[in-house]
Write a structure and sequence with these properties.
alpha+beta; Alpha-Beta Plaits; binds uracil; Structural Genomics Hypothetical 15.5 Kd Protein In mrcA-pckA Intergenic Region, Chain A; 15 strands
């Protein structure tokens, strides 16, 4: 694969822009033998893309044929590309992830489902349409763990009702928590396998309580790492991807 095509595939701009970056000496390739980055000005140099590490201006990048990332979504951000009130979560990602060329009309990675603007925690993003579908499809029942802070004290009656199933206003079919554990007077851990609109908030309202804080800490067996601060993102490695489906 030509170096300019590698850069293009990773979201560094059009092929012409990428060729220009290389020819202007702004791209460095990592040489694993010497352990140093070296300028490469040959835009049509043929390389095996897998495992290639390069630097474009200040951005160091390792080639990934598909992008799978997690973001620690902070409060006060919207999961939409065109947010109405708060900044978009996409502004927290580096430009190449937002510009990766895709076959679909929309460029860049897309969020797997959405979290409300005031919800924090684990958000997955990818440019792999099948992965996004697999992870967000209600039929796949991927469990998602939410840490809920409530306005009123949690009661055992509320927990029983969340486990037995509650009817949400416009929806005739009852939804139930796959698991529900009280963690404090005003806190519970709730596991859901569906992803209906405002589901946690509506379920808590249906049992006479109210969500004050909401944090998603786990999807499948993939937990938000303690070291990933709000607003930070990281690539998913093979273990992370396996944890999502195991
Ligand atoms: N349920 C909600 O009510 N809000 C979220 O952001 C996620 C699940």
């Amino acid at each position: 694969m030509q170096l300019q095509d590698i850069l293009y595939s990773q979201g560094f701009g059009t092929r012409r822009v990428c060729a220009g970056l290389i020819q202007r000496g702004l791209v460095q390739l990592f040489d694993s033998e010497t352990g140093i980055f070296q300028v490469c000005m040959n835009s049509v140099m043929d390389l095996k893309p897998e495992g290639i590490k390069f630097r474009v201006l200040e951005e160091t990048w390792v080639y990934q044929s598909r992008a799978y990332v997690m973001l620690h979504k902070p409060s006060g951000t919207e999961c939409s590309q065109k947010p109405s009130t708060y900044p978009s979560v996409y502004t927290l990602l580096p430009m190449p992830l937002r510009q990766r060329p895709c076959k679909s009309a929309i460029q860049g990675v897309q969020a797997v489902g959405r979290l409300d603007q005031d919800t924090t925690g684990l958000l997955l993003l990818s440019d792999d349409g099948q992965f996004i579908h697999r992870m967000s499809s209600p039929k796949k029942h991927v469990p998602k763990l939410y840490e809920v802070g409530t306005k009123h004290p949690v009661s055992s009656v509320q927990i029983d009702r969340l486990l037995e199933g509650v009817v949400l206003d416009d929806d005739p079919i009852a939804v139930k928590a796959a698991a529900c554990v009280q963690t404090s007077d005003h806190g519970l851990s709730l596991t859901l396998t569906e992803g209906k609109y405002h589901q946690v908030k509506r379920m808590l309202a249906a049992v006479g309580n109210r969500v004050e804080t909401l944090h998603r800490s786990r999807i499948g067996n993939l937990a938000l790492p303690i070291g990933l601060a709000p607003g930070q993102w990281k690539w998913l490695d093979d273990d992370d991807l396996a944890a999502l489906t195991s």
